[in-house]
Amino acid sequence: MDTEVNPEHPASGASVPKRPAPRLPGREPELGRLTGLFPVVLDGTAASAVLAGEFGMGKSALLRTTAALAADAGFTVAMATGSRLESHLAGGVARQLADALEEPGSPPRPPVAELCGAAGESEALDLFFRIVRDATERGPLLLGIDNIHLADAWSMRCLAYLRSRVLDLPVLIVLTSVVGYPPHREVALLDMVGSTPVTITLNGLGDAAAAEILGLAPGDLATTCREATGGNPVLLQALRPRLLPGADPHELGSSLIGQVLTTRVQEFPHAPAILHAAAILGEDAGFDLLARLAGVDELDALQAIDTLVRLHVLNNSDQPALTYSFVRNSLLKDMPQTTRAVNHSRAAKLLMEAGAPPERVAAHLLEATSIRIPWAVDVLRLSARDAVFSGRAELAARHLRRALEERLTSGRRMAVLLQLAHAEFQFDPPAAAKRVREAVDTVGNRETAAYIATAMLLSLCGGQDARLGISAAGQIAARLDAGGPDAVWPLLCMTYLAEAGSRLGPPPEFRDFEEQWAPLTDPAAQRSRSALLALDAVRSGESAQEAVGHFADALTGDDGDLFEQHYFFTLATAVLADEPAHVDRLCRVLDVEREPWDVHVPHGALPTLARGIALQASGDLQRASVHFESLLRRFDERGGTTTCPVGVLCAAKLVECWVDLGRFEAATSLLDRMDFVASQGLFTHTYLLYARGRLRVATGYTRFGFEDLLSCGRRLAHHGMRFPGFVPWRAHAARAALALGQTDDAARLAEEDINASARWGAARPLGTALTTMGLVREDDEAERALQKAITTLRTSPSRLQLATALTELGTLQARHGQSEKAIETLRQAVELSEQCGARPLARRAAEELRSSRRALTPAKDNEHGLTRQENRIAVMAAQGLTNREIATALHLTRRTVELHLSGAYRKLGIPGRAELGGALAKSSQRADGR
């Protein structure tokens, strides 16, 4: 009679009327392998199969479906189920099978287990075999044992005894077992199924099958659910009723699943403790932390971890975390809230002691909401800082709200509130404004409040979020004003700098602060005043000496906060680059032990960048590029190259350096990474625009480069910046204008540059401007400008600018026929440009030097020793061309033509132009005669 097991009572061995086999989504291949054994058994040969898989993977369901299909195929089906609670009862599973195989109406047999006790083991085993053999006389037989790993030892011996005796009988034995379950000490699995069973390992279901179980259409949600459960059918079924609209499957769990899993591992020593520790630690679950959090000896912990890994409850890795997020969430849901909070606080402390990243420690602190942890505030603030600058402002806000739950002094509360306002400003500006007002209301100690507000301003990169910081600092300054100017001035100074650097237009009027200067007595306040005086001198472009003096006064203390401010640092380094002593002092002040306020700025970045800028200004391009490149890699690691003003400045300086070194491809590649659209209005990006203009001119895109340089100038003017040494854009724009044939524009730019540089008075900008003037002028004026440029630049450390001026002068001298002078000038230019590493400039100077040396070689077709240039000019004059026409044709000045003709007259022994034709003809005849 066709029978199948009752799905309502799967442990029962009773036969029931046949019903359709249930559908098992995603298990068609495995079911096909099992039913593929039916023909073998129907032909009279025994077969066996083992279904293995982790908890809940559908072994029992697959066995029941196979039994139903076997019943349809004419098999007698006998089913049994191993149980943890019955594993100590001898013969429990064998009794289930024997009862299921008893033929209706036959005389009752003694129970197998009783026979074992009464007549001995061999008789009982033989009786079990006869029961199976007699059943095969009625037709093929399926013996299905679910959870064989939980069967009693006697039943396992019965199956082992049976297996070798039914080889020629139509018997199919199908066992299910949890993968990795510790084997029974007496009977191995292969003893019960033979040496060549069909072994089927059930893995997680695919996306389509998971979607069918969940009642979802295939898509991203179904995929996420499958990932959260590993495709485990039982977990998918538990997830389904919890999958409400908008829910994240990775955050869902079932307390019932947590209870079941905890119960199932109770039989393994220390496994429940390790399991719960793994649920608390999550991705932080390392061996040491698991053992310490579970309170288990290391050897015992290792044994428990080994067991849980083999059972596929923990991942098999050096971070043995729970295999699926749904399992972890289920275990956490099964824990009382207080237990969870205490364990998360313990985990946070263990992670902090182990040196874990602040973000990981903070993740546990967020879950320890009912536990007071004073040391947690600093960790939460640091983690929030990192989260804001990595674009996760809402996570940062969660961390900071958790920090506010601790007992805080008024100063620390204000600091946390301001930091929270900064985070909330990214996604909820009105809430941020309320946080600022709340922070201002908590102001207690004036010095602490000023320090916190200053730190807030230094931590901002700039842009729109800086407006909130400036507003908050202004409100705090107003609250501190009653303490006198010394108390409030440093904060006002930093607020002014932050606003000047973040504005899209000119900075606020400096004279608004002047009224408060007189009463300042505190040294820090006086240094702040000097800093603003220096900045005012830089913006006005009036006096380099005055600006340097004020910067020096600002550097007299050990407090370098002012110089850490992006806007101030950028301008200070531009001014002090030509002052080696002040550069050394600046680097010492910036080289602080603490991490920079701005999370994007690596430790030690500011002194490194300042030193690189000074090296570049001196012409040491190779060493400067090493500083910039090493620093740029660190900015890349922090994601600050394109967003942080200091990172942008470093990138721009490196591009400029590479242009001078001739590394055009590297410069182009770096500029391709920068966002010029998003940078509109940011002050330090002006330097980036200048660097791109220089690169474009150097690589032949002169028109585009010219437009970049003009745009750079317009932006500087819009910022109210008249300091000519920040970026010498006019010098390069004038060169581009000459290359484009726009001589009037070139002359205008050169004139503006010389006026601005003369007013400023520093050697490097002035020498650069004089060099440009030498390019746009003619005759003696050009040479005088270049000679003055060289004299000026020799008083500065600017070797690259000096090499440029020497190259231009040598080129001019050669063009004017002063070859001997040109050779000496160009020799110096080649030597100096090679020392700087400026390969493009060195190549140009070397080419001009070779041309000058050739020009000194006498022409071979005359006997009077005329040089090639003298001979060419003399021939043109003999043909009737005027000096002006010759100068125009050869791109020379009239003065140069006159000098060459005078030399030719002297060598030919004639008084003037009238005798020139005859003298040249005689000279040519004599040469031909030779």
Topology:
Elements: H1 28-35, H2 38-42, E1 47-53, H3 59-72, E2 76-81, H4 92-101, H5 112-119, H6 121-136, E3 141-146, H7 153-163, E4 171-178, H8 189-193, E5 198-201, H9 207-214, H10 220-229, H11 233-239, H12 255-264, H13 271-281, H14 287-294, H15 298-310, H16 325-333, H17 337-353, H18 358-367, H19 376-389, H20 393-403, H21 410-425, H22 429-441, H23 446-458, H24 464-480, H25 485-502, H26 523-540, H27 544-554, H28 561-564, H29 566-576, H30 580-590, H31 605-618, H32 621-638, H33 645-661, H34 664-673, H35 685-698, H36 702-718, H37 729-739, H38 743-760, H39 763-776, H40 779-793, H41 799-815, H42 819-836, H43 839-855, H44 868-878, H45 883-890, H46 894-908, H47 916-929
Parallel strand pairs: 1-4, 1-5, 2-3, 3-4
Helix pairs in contact: 1-3, 4-7, 5-6, 6-7, 9-10, 12-16, 13-14, 13-16, 14-15, 17-18, 18-19, 19-20, 19-21, 20-21, 21-22, 21-23, 21-24, 22-24, 23-24, 23-25, 24-25, 25-26, 26-27, 29-31, 30-31, 31-32, 31-33, 32-33, 33-34, 33-35, 34-35, 35-36, 36-37, 37-38, 37-39, 38-39, 39-40, 39-41, 40-41, 41-42, ...
- Beta-strand proportion: under 5%
The coarse silhouette is: elongated
Number of helices: 47
State the helicity in percent bands: 55-70%
Q: What structural class should be given to the helix and strand makeup?
A: mainly alpha
- Report the sheet with the most strands, covering strand number, pairing sense and barrel closure: 5 strands, parallel
Oligomer class: single chain
- The overall pLDDT, averaged over residues, is 85
**Tally of strands:** 5
* Residue runs with pLDDT of under 50 for 5 or more positions: 1-17
Distance between the termini: 132 Å
Radius of gyration, CA atoms, in whole angstroms: 44 Å
**Could you give the order of strands across the largest sheet?**
2-3-4-1-5
